[in-house]
Amino acid sequence: MTSPARQAAPLRADCIADSAGGLTFDVATPGDAGVAHLLLRRRDADDEVSLPLAPAAEGRLRAALPSTVALPEGRWDAYARVADDEPHRLVPGVTDLRSLADRIPSGLHGHVAVRIPYATRQGNLTVRSWLRAPHAEAAELRAGETGLSVRGRVYGVELGPGAHAELHGRPGTGARGTRRLDLTGERTEFRLAVAYAGLPPGVWDLWLRPAGPGGPRVRVARLLDDVADKQPVFTFPSARVQTPAGAVVAGPYYTQDNDLSVSVTALRP
What we know:
Elements (H helix, E strand, L loop, with lengths): L3 H4 L4 E6 L5 E6 L7 E7 L5 E5 L1 E4 L2 E6 L8 E9 L5 E2 L1 E6 L15 E8 L5 E8 L2 E9 L3 E9 L8 E6 L8 E4 L1 E4 L2 E7 L6 E8 L8 E4 L17 E5 L2 E9 L5 E7 L3
């Protein structure tokens, strides 16, 4: 016999994002819910954020996550706790993320906060959060036959004397060391180019040094849109390039954290 808990329909939450980085959750509840909270729990951590759910309309409760509330970087699973019941996983309803498309933060706070709600593979509601200080946004990528060109913008810092980019070999992939790249631009806008022929096989992660060698090291990423996981959505052509060590196939991709990297794979003779 199926228990009442299994028979009950999951609570559904509509989400609206604002251009400042805040989120509003509207949860449909049957009858009088009493005291209720929306809980966000960060995976692989003990962090939890509790947001009061207040009546917004008949049968609906609303919780707000303002952009001023810090949400450390990670994936936050959404739950609803009604009265003294155990928290129940929320499923996504209608999601309005239009304000996140081509979002341009002011950068006045010295950091960029991004929160994107999405449906997991199990159909549950989760919020992907980034908190970068400073941040380097990859606005445009062009993958050619010999290399990659990147146009972007930095937030929370400006380009200064000695500004440059760096490719760092990712441990365990065969790539080692650091390759310095020239950077062009002014104030917050930058351009750079990656030549594939000079890269040994492995994975190379792209960073900026906007204030020169003595300043912060900033990971290049694409965060300012409405796509939580860029990897399956943003795909780029690979190029076959001849290097002194032999032929390789190289191309850019976004990691699971939406950071920008370049993959170089040796071709067997």
